[in-house]
Every structure is written in C-alpha cells, then in structure tokens.
Amino acid sequence: MREDDVLLALARMSMDASVRASEDVGGVSPVQLRALTALRQKGEVNLAQLAEDIGITVSTASRLVDRLVGADWVHRAPSASNRRELRLTLTDTGKRLLRRYDRRRVTLLKEYLERVPAERRPAVLAALTELASA
To answer: Helix (H, G, I), strand (E, B), or coil: what is residue 88?
Structure first.
C-alpha cells in the first residue's frame, strides 16, 4: 500500500470513529463537537475567540452557542472584565458528553487495532504513538 493510501485509510478510520461516536452520544454535529472541544481546551472563551478557534464567523458562532446553551452543554455569562462581552464555559453536562464521546471513539479505534494480529499490535501502537507526538 502506498504511503498516501495508508494515510488516507488512517484518516478514514479516525473520521469513521468520530462520526459513529457522535451518533452514539445523541447525534451531536461535528461543528458542535468542535466548539465543545475548543471550550474544553481553553476553559473559557468569548464568542469571537470561539469563532476564530473553530473557523466560523461570529454570527454563525452566536447561533451555534444558542443551540449549545439550549442543550445545556455550554454556560453563557457576562464577562467579569468586560460587561459587553460574554464568557462561554462548558457545563457539567457538556463535560460528561465529551467524556462519553471520547470513550466511544477510543472503543471504536481499539476495535480497529484489534484487527491487527496480536504479535504486531505493540509495533503498530509504537508507530502511532510516534506519529501522534510528531
């Protein structure tokens, strides 16, 4: 298999695990997951920062945040430093959703890994570890 084909197959496996996991935790959309993941990484952001982090416009981010707040995944509150600005944080429900999503993705990726002969798994895992840390 060519290097390009291997990389594309790896990308497809990862994407498949992500899509299946999102369906399994309630059909959360990819953009919603990107927003929730960005919030988890940053801890707290304003609307403009979130929009920039996930590559969407502020107006699109505003509508997205409305949906995330409505689902009780995100908390929106006035910023302590700037009253015209809103701060966004994950709710406990949002954190639990992301933990379930991550656990499900790991389970699905482990299923792929289990298709590799047992004697080859340590080498494959070592190579993936090196790739992930590059």
So the answer is: strand
